[in-house]
Amino acid sequence: MRTYVDLFFSSESDAALDVVSKVRELAGVDFVSGPHDLLFSWQTVDEFRTMLEKVHRALAGSGIVYRIETVLDDAGYVDPVPWPPPTRPGEPIPHPGYGRPERRRP
Fold it and tell me: How distant, in Å, are the alpha carbons of 47, 86, 94, 95 from that of 105?
């Protein structure tokens, strides 16, 4: 499994570059580009706990708040919903976000 860690800085927290160096050195996690900041992979609950404890210790006292999100290794697939849906005048608008289809006005 993979766990992503998001870091939230404030003007009162330690400098971002200092934190990055400290986390990389103490926790040994990977920094990633995109919506998350850190990434670590694990197979067992003990590995997860060990890595999370290392990240927590590395960030302790820095004034940084963090959030974790764990995902499965294999990507899930969700059928796409076409939008706008193809309809003819007068047909109901099918969309899973609507409980009851509405009639279109011609």
Answer: 58, 15, 15, 17
Query: How far apart are the C-alpha atoms of 25 and 62, rounded to whole Å?
Result: 15
In order of their start, the domains of the chain are 2-71 (3.30.70.930)
| 95's tokens | 């969309």
R_g (Cα) of the chain, nearest Å: 22
pTM (2 d.p.): 0.64
* Two tokens, residue 87: 């309809």
Tell me the pLDDT tens digit for each residue of 53-90: 999 999 999 999 999 998 877 666 555 555 555 566 66
